[in-house]
Give the backbone structure.
Amino acid sequence: MNFNLNTDLNKKVHFIGIGGISMSGLAQILLKRGYTVSGSDMKESSLTKKLSQLGAEIYIGHHKDNLKNVDLVIYTAAIPDTNPELAQAKALNIPLFTRAEFLGLIMKGHKYNVAISGTHGKTTTTSMISHITLKENLDPTILVGGELDIINGNVRTGKSEYFITEACEYKASFLKFYPYIGIILNVDADHLDYYKDINEIQSTFKKFVDLIPKDGYLIANADDARAFEISQKALCNVVTFGITKGDITAKNISFDPKGCAAFEVYKCNSPLFTVQLNVPGKHNVLNALASIACALTLNISNNSITDGLLSFGGTHRRFEYKGEKDGVTVIDDYAHHPTEIKATLSAAKNYPHKRVFCVFQPHTYSRTLTLFDEFSKAFSDTDELVLADIYAAREKDTGVVSSDKLGDAIRKNNVKCENIHSFEEIVSFLNKTLKPGDLLLTVGAGNVFEVGEMYLKN
């Protein structure tokens, strides 16, 4: 379908799964441009409430009658063909776009599209670049996979040619994008319910790089073997970064009492400036280096880079401080992959604590099964682990894998681990077990953050 974002303002656009972080962002962009927007989701959330306040017509639950005088339907990769609204749109011949296709359409209207890809760190790096470009007054449009305080949510609609967005590899959705600057933070095994193996994942990232025009730029992590290998075959300009090697590197790294890094930035072994981060963990040094490489490519001033990074205190659900009770500090983190869990627990080691307690909620049966061995070895840096039941998300329980089975494997690796099957029971256990000075981490991409919130209230 030929759809012009600037001239088809009289169209009504319906989003199936409008409560998703990216879908809600796209809906907000259209609302601010004057479109009529409707959408549905399985349950109400802060995002659906916000969209309703902005003028969107929100339906809770999916039903074919939700499509009222609709000109265009957008749906996510997680929506099955059996969805009644999707089936109704096809029956009525209403034009359909996937979320990725429509995001690509919006990107087409901008010259400087920055697309941040990688298995881990996309939201944090997108947020860092957002802070830097805002400090430089570039007036970017921003779409981030988390809620960022500086833009009061997950989206910002600018009026310039700069567009900053995450580029997710799930179901190869980022191949619908139009990057001028493409960033690869890392290439790791994930989404193995869709990809055959890590080699297919790497080849898909290579296809993403092929989308960058010859006068555009690839920014790649030289410390990540697969990302670096991809960069060697790129036909566009290439800038690499890394702690140990790359065009943009960090030297003399130190950590403050909260585990936040300070380091000197070098370009081709020449010193540029010193950076102080306001988010903890060594993994965030790499995220910052990617952001710095991007900013230098865009000719952003050194002051905007350093000030922007210092002003970034984290995205919601990324090592987010939730509160304190009886001397126990509660931190929440979105980590749901073994590599991310290790990075989060490593950051916790540098955070003030006596003992680290981790409550982990595995995310999806397929991920738990395909990365079972890696999960069983990911928790060595916690003093005690509590495993909640698997968060199903879009999947059904086939009985092949369970949180109990994962707990058995983790205990074989000499980690103190408890399987507890309800949030109420977990909070009761924590109230009996935690002591002043302990650090409580709630970890996972589902609703495990509710455990920390319940603990702080009880």
In short: The chain has a mean pLDDT of 93. Residues 320-457 form a domain with the Protein-Tyrosine Phosphatase; Chain A fold (CATH 3.90.190.20).
